[in-house]
Amino acid sequence: MSLFDKFKPLAERRAALAELEANPFNVVIERILSPTEAVVNGRHTILAGTNNYLGLTFDSRCIEAAQTALREEGTGTTGSRMANGTYAAHLALEQEFADFFDSPTAIVFSTGYMANLGILSTIAGPDDVILLDADCHASIYDACRMGSAEVIRFRHNDAGDLEKRLRRLGERASKTLIVVEGIYSMLGDLAPLEEIAAIKQRYGSWLLVDEAHSLGVLGQQGRGLAEAVGVEDQVDFVVGTFSKSLGSIGGFCVSHWPELEQVRYAMRPYIFSASSSPSLIASTRCALEILREGDELRSRLWENVHRLYEGLQSLGLALGPEPSPVVAAILEESIERALALWNRLLQRGVYVNLMLPPATPGGHCLLRCSISAAHSYQQIDVIVEAFAGLEIAAA
Amino acid sequence: MPSPQDILTDLYQLIETFAEQGQELDEETELVTDLKLDSVKVMNLMLQIEDHFDISIPLNVLPEIRTIKDLAAQIEELTRVAE
After folding, report:
1. Residues of B in contact with A134 (CB under 8 A)
2. What is the per-residue pLDDT across A322-367, written as a single tens digit (0 to 9) for each?
3. pLDDT at residue B83 tops 90
């Protein structure tokens, strides 16, 4: 008997994958060339699965800001925000997020995962309820496990099911935090946020929106889905990440409740993590400024989204319900065949994400693309051509 | 509020559609090991049970549910609280 025995099934599955020419869960970017290109398996590859929505990872202004911070402030803070890890730039970034969302306060975390872990595991206590969309991200589920609130799921994007569950909770509805995402990461579908916000108001509940995939992508100013559908004043907490449209690493939470500041030093993931390095904070500040002025970037992103969505649709593929920067081809194929299709795309010089059940909606395998403002029309066309002729059985 | 026996009878009917044809069900039948339900099937079964009994089963209690008897006990508790 060994502590490692329980990992044998996982090891066997990984060993089977290792026999393939390329393993979708062990891709090595041998050389990154730009926000949209890399060398993978010695081959020049278009990256269509990186969540780099605004393509800012190679922006010269962000790089220069990071280089300056690196030179002047060093490689890391070596400490928690609660101890020696709060530099002036961390506070400046928090103020900039607060200004951007017109909120009294903002908290910056070292990762997006940590933002959900910190906020959700702390804000909802033992007498409270978290009512989350069934398709929420793993960080939200993990946060629920770490916290002490009662946790209930409602059917994905089903406002009627949400309302039914709030009704069942009776008076406890006023101590219930509803958790949804702006854009869901698997199929790229949007939450029916107007309906959800109206229900939240009716029951006197609380609402948290994770705008990880919608920050910089939706809304006139790029604040996400809540801005796009005009319900920002009904959203109590917005959580987001720096590792998608902002092209770095980190997370944040803003709220129109000034009391959020009281939560800061109650969050163990926040207290017991080293703060972000000065170079990360510097590039994020620069990227946030670009995002705020990013009308043109957003227009380019959406042009690319429509080009890819329509291109894949014309091939007869089943896609997520609406065009968004996440465009997923939904397969009616076995896992083995999905792996082979993914591999053939890579051989054709296109990297996408392969998503497998049980992590996927409906138990389908997905070939998931994410689009960037930095993709050229030519690259989008190459991606569509790579999908053409794959003889995919669409769900 | 349904009686414990009513809950069990309804549960057998709901679970039958998820079990292999002809599989015997009793109170000690384990959902994961005996019925070989994966996590997606367990979640779908829970949704049907929730609709049927007009309850919400918190995720927190799922680790405590191994057998049909455990599930029935949780449903009884939740329907009692809802009264």
Report:
1. 43
2. 999 999 999 988 888 899 999 999 999 999 999 998 888 888 999 9
3. no
Residue A238 sits at φ, ψ, to 5 deg, of: -115, 130
Listing DSSP states for A11-40 in one string gives: HHHHHHHHTSSS-TTS---SEEEETTEEEE
State residue A21's pLDDT score.
65
pLDDT beyond 80 at A309:
yes
Query: Could you tell me if A123 and A212 lie in one domain?
Result: yes
The answer for A378, left when phi > 0, alpha when psi is -120 to 50, beta otherwise, is alpha
Q: How far is A157 from chain B (nearest CA, A)?
A: 15
Q: What structural domains does chain B harbor?
A: 4-82 (1.10.1200.10)
B56 vs A357: CB contact, 8 Å cut-off? no
- The rounded distance, in Å, linking the Cα atoms of A328 and A365 is 10
| DSSP H helices in B17-63 | 39-53
Q: What are the pLDDT digits (tens) for A242-251? A: 999 999 999 9
Query: Is the same domain home to A92 and A235?
Result: yes
Reported as a single tens digit per residue, the pLDDT across A225-242 is 999 999 999 999 999 999
ipTM above 0.85, yes or no: yes
The structural domain count of chain A equals: 2
Of the candidates A381, A345, A349, A389, which has an alpha carbon nearest to the alpha carbon of residue A365?
A: A345
By Cβ distance, the residue of B38, B55, B59 closest to A151 is B59
Alpha helices in A209-324 (DSSP H): 225-228, 260-263, 268-271, 278-292, 295-314
Residues with Cβ within 8 Å of B44's Cβ and at least 6 positions away in sequence, in order, are: B18
Cβ within 8 Å, pair A363-B40: yes
- CB B59 to CB A169 under 8 A? no
**Residue A349: CATH number of its domain:** 3.90.1150.10
